[in-house]
Amino acid sequence: MADNGRAPAVSARGVVKSFGRMKVLDDLTVDIPRGVTYCLLGPNGSGKTTFIRAVVGLLKLDGGDLQVLDQPVSQVQEIYSRIGYMTQHKALYPDLTLQENLEFFAGLYSIEKQEREKRITELLEMVNLLEHRHRLAGDLSGGMYQRLSLACTLIHEPELLLLDEPTVGVDPRLRQTFWEYFDRLTAEGKTVLITTHLMDEAEKCKIVGYMRAGRMTAVGSPDEIKRLAGLRPHLELWLKDPEKDAARLRAQGYEIEIDKGVVQLRLESHDQIKSVLEEVTPLDMRLKEPTLEQAFLQLSEAA
Amino acid sequence: MIRVDWQVDLRRIGVVALRVVRQLKRDRRTIGLITFAPILLMILFGYALSGDMSGVTLGLVDGGGHSIMKSHLEGIKDFNILYLGSESDAEKLVSQGLLNGAVVLEPHEVRVLLDSTSIQIANTILAAAQAGAEEEMASSLQKASLQSQGPQKQPGGQPSLIVTRYLFGYDLEMMDTVGPAILGLVVFFFTFINASIAFIRERSQGTLEKFMVSPLSRIEMVSGYVLGFSFFTLLQSTTTLLVVTFGFGVPMRGNPLTALAIVLLLGAGALVLGSFFSNFARSEFQVVQFIPLIITPQIVLCGVWWPLQSVPEFIRPISYILPLTYAGDALRAVMLKGASVTDILYPDLFALGVFFLVFFSAATLMLRREVG
Lengths: 303, 372
Fold this sequence. Notes:
The complex is a heterodimer. By secondary structure, chain A is of the alpha/beta class. Helices cover 34% and strands 26% of the residues of chain A. The relative contact order of chain A is 0.14. Chain B contains 14 helices and 4 strands. By secondary structure, chain B is an alpha/beta fold. In chain B, helix 13 packs antiparallel against helix 14. The interface between A and B is medium-sized, with 33 and 29 residues.
């Protein structure tokens, strides 16, 4: 992990938060290392947004210990200039232009004029809104609004970015640009914590934390999560004599199913492909990777 | 997490103020309202409440004598006089609502029949009858003094002539006395509504939550709003002052800058009050529902349209905590009596200052409490 031996960007130990009788964070323990994109995945109401709000100090915790950039969360306001927080609400002024919105947020972080202009241009370029800089934010489409909101969150170059569903309504190509930008940020040692429902996004994260009912039920790289859910890659083989070859492979200890004449072989690791090919010579073959979505469904059902 | 932040960075206050100005500047409808509402209110309150009546239908039963009073009543151009034969006719017509009232003149008595379901009209008729009686009395006194060959002696048993001496405002009309209050009222009303809605929006569009996670402190935020709105209060009060003084001829005997200072202080109070009350509303719609609760008592109890003395004693303490009471008083003192800042320092400016500070603190504290 890219934490360079430093303490995690966010460290939660037994964090508890209830709203009335409902326990939204239930003994939540998690470490978010520095310099990675970390994805919080989980069904609606699993506590993802509550956790992010707790990290930025917007909630009074009922118990547990929470450290943010080496600060106890009770003093997190002292490091607000190092945190970027994008809510699901977008948090922009529709009656200001894009430029004015960015100027305003830059002003809150006391960014000097020259530097401010440079960053505004750079960010508008990144979110592909440079040509619209003098339009009113209220005239933008949903996706454009989202992009502007992200730009406003990034204006002060935060060390820890907390993004609550940042890519809703953003088209796939631009989403790719976002991810490239996030990679650039993590390469600079910054930490990006994202909540998302989009599996393909979670796949791009270095670490995925799967939350359920206020707890972290699985943490790891997307591959690790899939393994944890008991999912493995499958090799589909088209063979001359499926029954005979399947029996041979079974004898080698492989888990095999035959579906409409196609042999489905479960791989424990990708290294096994080579030894499978030493046993049989397929007419055709295809590698089927499990998706995070399958893992997600599997974990939900298991719980 | 509860955080106490006393830090104040003037630049950040300026950043918030600039944003507020930019937003309001784009809101053409509000700018239009700010400019035209005072004119409309002047017309409504100024003319409607001017106390002048026209189209009053008065019955007159002439039973002899009182020729002076009779000609006085006939001389009132806003009265339509209907001559009647008997008091019972008059009574009938008044009870049918065909007459607003009637005056029965008899050699030894004058009886005034009134329909007090419309108290203002009744008062107007009564006042006219009394004025006629005064005129009659003055004329008989004059005769009496001529007969006794000397003005220095008053004939025994004769009632003395009432002499009214106006210390201020002898030449004022209703418009003049309500003008300063309208200035205060429009500023209070619009600032309160605009500020509450602005704060509601900060909440609903998520910007408030974003501020909470930025170096901007609550004090800076509310101060920025006060500063930003002050530009518009200044614009609005200047227009209103111009309309009130040049358009409607209300005198400006004191320093206009003192009047503006009062209005600015009142506007700042309205802003923090709006910010405070926005905590209790979830939508712009609910803010509008505050109007009867917050604005109407100020109009009714501020002592401009109905004097504080006419407010029942158990309600009067409310009058004394409402800012418009003090602003109205101070503005009238400056505009109509030519009072200086030192004249209105206590209680008016003091009370407005205390009101601002109390709700400034309440508004900032409530912003903090909002965080769960």
